[in-house]
Every structure is written in structure tokens, then in C-alpha cells.
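Anyone up for a design puzzle?
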């Protein structure tokens, strides 16, 4: 599996990594997360598979292959792999038992693909927000050249003025004292953020750790469905993308990972960021990563 110089140890948790709609029938779609090069594809029944993007035969990229009859065929010599990563057909002779690629736990819910990349056994529960129930959404996708922890921390900064804070073992919510609880940002482990500035709309930010130096953001704008919702959502999502993007150069200018022990000196107004770092660290320790 791809572990280049930008690789980092996968963290525990169900990481949202893609929109379900990106993985159409008959397509092999590459995805990079924690420096691991992976491929997503669907069986004939529509079941999603996630596995290493490296063919165990001679290293070709399986995401350039073809999906056919419930298998993924390598583009170089056509060897076929099932969703469990086992090679089920080669060009001649019997299939050696070692000819298999790593397959990873993957689930679909809320129109998203969730991947478990850590060595520990996956937990049952997927992270999500009840606040999004019954709302329509529009999605955009952007990339920033910075460690993913810096992106989460910056979003927790975005509540202006005095703030209040609530946290538990897997989330941090901060809201404006002046604007009230309807003006909030919440991070939910491992990589989801929601923000609201009133009752009408919500923004979900999926922070995908591509590698140590790169983060992909899936920005979903949510609002109540109506006859105008397609237009309203498109315009609102364009505005939100610009609003988040205004920070891009500032955040990309931050060096390294946002974690305890990296030399950052936090102050009282960084309480939400400190809570995020504490929770992330505790989750890593609890699973022995
Ligand atoms: S490199 Fe994949 S089948 Fe040969």
C-alpha cells in the first residue's frame, strides 16, 4: 500500500472520505487518505469495496483498471480481484495464495463513504449530526496544502467574539455568547465539522487527511428543500466556498501538525482548539496507535 514520504499513521475512527455519488457503477475511483493510495469500486449488486490501489502482481494502479462482473481487473495484465482483495483469476496457471491486496472496512451512509484505516477493529457507530436531518444539500470539493488538524482548528476559530464551549470524548462545540446557540461550530471525531449562523442553513465540512501536507475539503451546504432550493443551495455553497477559501493562504502558512508538543503556545481564546487536540490525542492513545 502506498506509504511515501507524506504517509502518516492512520488514526482510529470512521473517516468520511468521499461522496457516494463519486463511485458510479462500473468505475474504479482513486482516493488518497493518510498517505495511503486506495481504490473504491462497486460490485454488480452495488456493494462498495475499498482496497489498496497497488496490484500485488507487479505494482500497477488498480484504479486505472476496469470493473466487470463483480471484480476489479488490473489494467496491466488483467488479473481479477474480488471485493475482499483476493485474486480470483490470472492469465495462466493457478492463483498463488499470496496474490491478494489489502481490503479495508468501508461503509456508506448519508450519501458519504466512510473508511476505517486504523489497525483496530472498527466501531459500529458512524459520526453524523442530527442537525442535518431533513435538509437538502449541495456539495463542493477543494484542496488545501496543509495538515488536516490545522483546518479543523481554524474552523473552531470562526465564531467571533466571546464564546462558550462544550466537549465530550468525541466532539467539541463552541458557540457565540452574543449570537446565541444558533451560531455555532462543532467538530465531531474523527473528521466532520458543522457550522451554523442562524436557523436557516448549515455547512458540513468533511476534512479528509490526504497526507501530511495536503487536505481535501468536501463542503456541503444544507438548507430546507423548496422549489428554489437547487438555485439557493448552489449560490449559498458558492458563497461558503469563497468564505472558507479566504482563510486558505493563512492556514496553508501554518507549519506542521496542530498538536500538543509542536511548539504552539495556546491562550485562553484557544480553548476549543485545545479541546480538539486533547480529544484527538486521547483517541490515539486509547486505541494504542
Ligand atoms: S501488475 Fe496487475 S496484473 Fe500484472
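Challenge accepted. My sequence:
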Amino acid at each position: 500500500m502506498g506509504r511515501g514520504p507524506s504517509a502518516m499513521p492512520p488514526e482510529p475512527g470512521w473517516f468520511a472520505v468521499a461522496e457516494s455519488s463519486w463511485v458510479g457503477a462500473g468505475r474504479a475511483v482513486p482516493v488518497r487518505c493518510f498517505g495511503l493510495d486506495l481504490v473504491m469500486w462497486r460490485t454488480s449488486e452495488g456493494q462498495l469495496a475499498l482496497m489498496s490501489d497497488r496490484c500485488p502482481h507487479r505494482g500497477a494502479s488498480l484504479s486505472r483498471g476496469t470493473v466487470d462482473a463483480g471484480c476489479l481487473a488490473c489494467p496491466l495484465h488483467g488479473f481479477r480481484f474480488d471485493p475482499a482483495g483476493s485474486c480470483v483469476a490470472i492469465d495462466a496457471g493457478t492463483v498463488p495464495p499470496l496474490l491478494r491486496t489489502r481490503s479495508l472496512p468501508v461503509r456508506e451512509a448519508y450519501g458519504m463513504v466512510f473508511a476505517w484505516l486504523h489497525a483496530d477493529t472498527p466501531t459500529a457507530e458512524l459520526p453524523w449530526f442530527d442537525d442535518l436531518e431533513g435538509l437538502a444539500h449541495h456539495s463542493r470539493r477543494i484542496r488545501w496544502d496543509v495538515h488536516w488538524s490545522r483546518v479543523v482548528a481554524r474552523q473552531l476559530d470562526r465564531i467571533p467574539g466571546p464564546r462558550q464551549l462544550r466537549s465530550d470524548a468525541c466532539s467539541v462545540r463552541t458557540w457565540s455568547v452574543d449570537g446565541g446557540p444558533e451560531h455555532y461550530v462543532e467538530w465531531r471525531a474523527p473528521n466532520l465539522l458543522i457550522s451554523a449562523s442562524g436557523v436557516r442553513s448549515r455547512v458540513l465540512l468533511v476534512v479528509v487527511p490526504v497526507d501530511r501536507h495536503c487536505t481535501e475539503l468536501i463542503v456541503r451546504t444544507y438548507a430546507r428543500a423548496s422549489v428554489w432550493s437547487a438555485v439557493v443551495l448552489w449560490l449559498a455553497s458558492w458563497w461558503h466556498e469563497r468564505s472558507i477559501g479566504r482563510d486558505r493562504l493563512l492556514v496553508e502558512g501554518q507549519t506542521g501538525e496542530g498538536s500538543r508538543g509542536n511548539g504552539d503556545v495556546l491562550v485562553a481564546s484557544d480553548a476549543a482548539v485545545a479541546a480538539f487536540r486533547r480529544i484527538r490525542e486521547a483517541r490515539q492513545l486509547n486505541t494504542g496507535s
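A detail worth pointing out: Residues 130-286 form a domain with the Naphthalene 1,2-dioxygenase Alpha Subunit; Chain A, domain 1 fold (CATH 3.90.380.10).
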